[in-house]
Hints:
mainly alpha, 5 helices, single chain
Amino acid sequence: MQKAEGWMLDKLRKMKMITAVLMGVWFYSLTILIHVLVICSIIPYTWVNGGRSESFAAQLSLSMISTLIAVMGVVFTLLIGGNKLTKFNRGITVICWFLAVFWSFGFIQQWLGTPFEKTVCSFVLLLGVLSHLRMAIEKR
């Protein structure tokens, strides 16, 4: 198991940080786009949240909160990826690991969701998982 973990971390470390940052920006941008499309009723609200939202109004508040979180995610990704911060290095690493685990859990949930989530949202989340993993293993 140790060799497999080392191999995976080596592969992730070979990814340039700018690539990880761009993947993170794409991840958050596509997340925002999906939720804006739900808010504008272009994508049916039953396609997201595992189809569990009882009404458009219920999904509207979830989509607005998700959009706000994604905007904060873009800012965070650009701040930590754009320059090597010298303060709070351990805190940044912990946040990156938390986000990598959080988005990994979300990735699993997408596979249990609607066909739209399985085909589109899971790919989007995979970008986020890989991006945050790469940022988490960066030597600070």
